[in-house]
């Protein structure tokens, strides 16, 4: 019901998040079945858990953290039963297959599956990629922001612009550090007070968010709401665990949770129309992020597909005014001008796209088309050969 999850439900491309989360939970559930007392066919359940973990990784590779999530769940469940902390030897024997699977996948990802610079999705060096400490400062700010959205989900929208923080004494960085330290302290206190499931929930949040932290793998974004899909489970688990332990919390938990589900559900319902179609979606994003050139280009494409070329031309011009570094924007503007018969201006736009990116063959194809229409077959052939 939480509106922070709408993006992953409304977009077909978002299926990876609920899919990998389903397999993660299935893997945890199957593993817990294997440690029942007495355990019914423990290795059958563990093989099922291992298979679910593999499916989770193949659904979305951030599920690589599943081996750690299963391990901490195992420890928390044993502690909650009062059996004491298990021996390291026993844990190694039971969990080795999961960590071996994770190691094999990571090895493949660095070798035969390393299609495009695995740990750095940026094409050029920048202040983020060259300074690990700045990535840490920035992570603290988005970490706290994500928790805030779970509690007070306001201002939700994809494509969030987020700055790189370079000053450890910045108020936002210090707030994030205090929130993270407070959670870690709460996790330690909960373990000491025999509340292992609260500790598990907090640990789940930290561990499942780690692949998106930019601390190891540098993703070409600093914050997306849908990154909270799996970590949010940890937050709810910690709250529910606290409610089952303390009668005072338990008395108010159910009515508050019910009221929250209704309120959040209404907000989720109201967000869904933003994904009605491409034009609606990019118009909605531009209300929040009017300075993003790519969004204006995408909106231009959306209205161009509906035959509204003059409107598309205005949007492309807005995108170029903000940032003239994308050959796609110039190319699309050329297409729109070509469609309304303005051949001279269209040619200029295709040539400009090729100045930005000389191997952008799409513009050579359209130039060939344009020259053919004008009857200049020599130029048309030349453009086709270059393409």
Flag low-confidence runs. none
Largest sheet properties: none
Structural class: mainly alpha
What fraction of residues sit in β-strands? under 5%
Count of DSSP strands: 0
How confident is the prediction overall: mean pLDDT? 91
Structure description:
- This protein has 387 residues and is an all-alpha fold.
- The protein is 68% helix and 0% strand.
- The protein contains 17 helices and no strands.
- Helix 2 (16-34) packs antiparallel against helix 3 and helix 16 runs antiparallel to helix 17 (377-386).
- The longest helix has 25 residues, at 247-271.
- The chain is elongated and about 85 Å long.
- The relative contact order is 0.08.
Feature tags:
387 residues
Give a brief outline of the structure.
The protein is 68% helix and 0% strand. It is an all-alpha fold and 387 residues long.
SSE layout and pairing:
Elements: H1 6-10, H2 16-34, H3 42-59, H4 66-80, H5 88-110, H6 132-151, H7 171-192, H8 196-209, H9 231-245, H10 247-271, H11 278-288, H12 293-304, H13 309-322, H14 327-339, H15 343-356, H16 361-374, H17 377-386
């Amino acid at each position: 019901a939480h509106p922070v999850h709408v993006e992953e439900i409304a977009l077909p491309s978002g299926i990876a998040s609920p899919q990998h989360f389903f397999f993660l939970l299935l893997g945890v559930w199957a593993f817990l079945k294997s440690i029942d007392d007495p355990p019914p066919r423990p290795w059958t359940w563990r093989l099922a858990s291992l298979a679910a973990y593999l499916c989770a990784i193949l659904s979305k590779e951030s599920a690589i953290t599943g081996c750690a999530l299963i391990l901490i769940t195992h420890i928390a469940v044993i502690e909650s039963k009062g059996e004491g902390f298990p021996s390291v030897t026993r844990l190694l024997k039971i969990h080795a297959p999961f960590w071996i699977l994770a190691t094999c996948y990571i090895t493949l990802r660095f070798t035969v599956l390393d299609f495009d610079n695995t740990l750095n999705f940026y094409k050029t060096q920048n202040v983020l990629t060259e300074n690990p400490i700045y990535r840490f400062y920035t992570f603290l700010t988005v970490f706290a922001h994500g928790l805030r959205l779970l509690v007070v989900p306001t201002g939700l929208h994809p494509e969030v612009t987020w700055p790189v923080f370079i000053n450890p004494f910045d108020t936002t960085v210090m707030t994030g550090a205090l929130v993270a330290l407070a959670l870690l302290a709460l996790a330690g206190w909960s373990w000491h007070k025999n509340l292992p499931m609260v500790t598990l929930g907090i640990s789940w949040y930290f561990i499942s968010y780690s692949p998106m932290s930019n601390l190891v793998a540098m993703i070409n974004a600093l914050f997306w709401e849908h990154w909270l899909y799996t970590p949010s489970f940890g937050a709810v688990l910690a709250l529910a665990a606290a409610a089952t332990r303390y009668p005072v919390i338990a008395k108010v938990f159910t009515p508050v949770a019910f009221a929250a589900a209704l309120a959040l559900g209404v907000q989720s319902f109201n967000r869904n129309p933003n994904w009605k179609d491409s034009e609606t979606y990019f118009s909605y994003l531009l209300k929040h992020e009017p300075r993003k050139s790519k969004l204006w280009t995408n909106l231009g494409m959306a209205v161009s597909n509906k035959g509204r070329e003059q409107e598309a031309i205005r949007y492309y011009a807005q995108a170029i005014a903000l940032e003239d570094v994308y050959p796609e924007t110039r190319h699309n503007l050329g297409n729109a001008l070509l469609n309304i018969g303005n051949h001279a201006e269209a040619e200029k736009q295709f040539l400009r796209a090729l100045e930005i990116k000389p191997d952008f063959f799409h513009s050579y194809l359209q130039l060939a088309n344009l020259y053919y229409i004008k009857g200049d077959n020599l130029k048309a052939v030349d453009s086709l050969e270059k393409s």
